[in-house]
Amino acid sequence: MKDLKARKEDATPRGINVLCDWFVAKAQNSTIWDTTEREFIDFAAGIAVLNVGHRHPRIIKAVEKQLKAFTHTAYQISPYESYIELAEKINKLAPIDGKKKTCFFTTGGEATENAIKVAKAHTKRYAVIAFGGSFHGRTAAAVGMTGKVVPYKADLGPGMIGIYHGLYPNALHKITVEDALRSLDHICKSSISPYDVAAIIFEPVQGEGGFYPAPKDFVKGLREFADQYGIVLIADEVQTGFARTGKLFAMEHFDVTPDLLCMAKSLGGGLPISGLCGKAKIMDAVNPGGLGGTYAGNPLATVAGLEVLKIIKEENLLQRAKTLGNTLQAFLKNLKHKEIAEIRALGSMVAVEFFKDGQPSSELAKKVQALAMEEGLLLLTCGSYGNVIRFLYPLTIPDQQFQKALEILKKVIAKAVK
Question: Are 101 and 274 in contact (CB under 8 A)?
Fold first, then answer.
C-alpha cells in the first residue's frame, strides 16, 4: 500500500485530486474491495457511471462477445451496426420533439463541447449562456461553461470568449426563479445581444453544483426565452440520465423539451461513451467531418450501452430509483439534526446539505464523508460551498446492503454534528 501511494505521488500530477487513500482490487454490483480485501459499500458509483452496478453480468457477456469480433475500427472509417442500433434506440427514447439524430463520443466533456459546436453551426452565432454552479466538463470550452471556479477554472486564465453565466434557481440560497430568469435579460442587456447567443446549456438537476433540481417554471422560462430569440436549448443530462431520477432522462419530469440533449456516464455501464441527441435539422448543421473522434462510439462501449437500456427496462430500474430515493429521503428527514439545512431528491438523485451557525459548512460534509469511509461507506461531496453529500448508489444495490448503508449514515451523521 505504501509503495502504491508513493508511486502515485511520483508518477501522477497533483491536479488529479484523489479521494480515497486506498486502491481498488475488485468490484461487483455495489461493493468495492481494496487491495487489503476491505469492503466498501459504493454510494459514489464512479461519479454516477454505474447505475446498473459494477460488472453487470449482461454487460460483461456483451463486451466479451464483441472482444472476439473486433475492438476498434473508428466508426467514421469502418462503421458497425451497434453504433447505429444504439443511436436508433436513443432517438426513440430521448424527450425531444420531432425527428432526432444521435452521435457518440467518449466523455461527457466531449458531449457538451460538441453540443455547442452543433448549436453554433445551426445558428451561425458564437455566444453561450450557462449557469452558476453548473458543471459541464474539464476540457477547454466545457470548463469555460462550468459555473464553479475552484477547482476547475482557477489559475487557467481567460477561457473561450462568449460564455456568460446566469443565476440558477436555489431557494435555500435565496435565488428565486424570477431572479434566475431576470439574469438572462441582464446578460442580454449589459453584455451581449440575444441574437448573438447560439445556445443556453443547463442541467435539469445540477450535479457538481449540489443536486439542485430545476423548478419547472424555470425550465419553462428557458424554453420561452430560447424560442423568442432563436437560441438552441441544451439539456446536459450527463449525470442525470439513464434512470437516476426515476425517468430515463430527467427532462421527462418537465413539461418542455430541449433541442439537444447531452448524455454520458451510466450509458456505458462502466465503459467510456457519451452521446449527443437532438433535432435532426439542428444535428445536421455540421459539415461532414466536423463531428466524431478516433474512439467515439467505440464498439465495446456501444454494445454495453445497448445492454444498459435493456437492463433498465427488464430490471425495472426506473421504479427502483423512485423506491430507493423515497426510502433514503424519508430516512434523512427522520434524523432531525439542526445542521441538516435541506434534503433534496428527484428519484435517486438525493442530497443532504449541511449548515452550521447559519452558514454552509463544508467541514461538516467532509467529516461525514471521512467517518463514513472509516465505516466502509463511500460517499461524495458536492456543491458550490462543498457542503453537500450526494448519494449515487447503483440502482441495483441489494436491499440488505442499502439498509446497512443507512445504518452507517445515521451513526456517522450523529457523530459528525456533535
Answer: no
**Residue 346 pairs with which residues in a beta bridge?**
349
**Backbone torsions φ then ψ of 404, nearest 5 degrees:** -60, -40
Strand partners, 24: 34
Entry pTM = 0.97
What digits encode the pLDDT tens for the residues 20-59?
999 999 999 999 999 999 999 999 999 999 999 999 999 9
Residue 33 carries which side chain, given as an amino acid letter?
A: W
Q: Per the structure block, which three cell numbers stand in for 240?
A: 442525470
Query: Each residue of 97-121: pLDDT tens digit?
Result: 999 999 999 999 999 999 999 999 9
Write out the H or E segment, with its range, that includes residue 26: strand 24-28
DSSP class of residue 293 equals -
- Quick one: pLDDT at residue 418? 86
CA-based diameter of the chain, in Å? 61
Assign 41 to helix, strand or coil: strand
Asked whether the beta carbons of 384 and 133 are under 8 A apart, the reply is: yes
- For residue 201, which amino acid is it? I
Rounded CA gap, 282 and 121, in Å? 8
Report the alpha-carbon distance of residue 241 to residue 249 in Å, rounded.
5
Contact 378, 390 (CB under 8 A): no
Backbone angles phi and psi of 297, in degrees to 5? 65, 40
Angle at the Cα of 16 from the Cα atoms of 11 and 18, rounded to 5 degrees: 95
Q: How far apart are CA 288 and CA 131, in angstroms?
A: 31
Dihedrals φ, ψ of 181, to 5°? -70, -35
